[in-house]
């Protein structure tokens, strides 16, 4: 039977469909495609609300990928992304790692940890008042990587009086703050989040004239969109999810 012109045009397409159909049993016998693994670096200070969203996102997409979370400090997360041991992670902004992209997904105010007895009734405190107290800070603490940036901002208002003891001297720290002689710094919790202060004698008070905001950034290689569209789609979804 002679094909019409239209039939001749469609014949190759029909043959291709038939060939694909014939190959289906072989493809099915190979089993399901392997689930992609996406590796994420998680710092110890990641806000609980973001941690919960990330975990929920991973659990709701197990058919598409397996999201693994590696607990690391910011420096190790950045190094892991640069050397492709990690696909992305959450860090403080870092101007030195220029081949990474940083997208801010969370901002937090910094408060002063003070004596509950003396400051519980205060709605806020000024930097000038804090500068009259001893300042407690320990740069060895990976949970408080932001300290250098906050201290730089405070120093713009005057000289910080650094305490002679550190966070390792737990009893002296507690005594100094509880007595109203010293203060520490901590992120202000988001609405609905519990207060995580170590002692009942402490209270976290907003600093009225401190403009500093603690940033949480999603970091990834800046060539991701061009070389891995699937990963970029995942990152775009996480950014939207975290900004809700």
UniProtKB/TrEMBL annotation:
It comes from the Bacteria. The keyword Manganese does not apply. GO terms for molecular function: DNA binding; DNA-binding transcription factor activity. Coiled coil: none annotated. The keyword DNA-binding applies. InterPro entries: LysR_subst-bd. Residues 74-225 form the LysR substrate-binding domain. GO terms for cellular component: protein-DNA complex. PANTHER family: HCA OPERON TRANSCRIPTIONAL ACTIVATOR HCAR, TRANSCRIPTIONAL DUAL REGULATOR HCAR-RELATED. This is LysR substrate-binding domain-containing protein. It comes from Mycobacteroides franklinii.
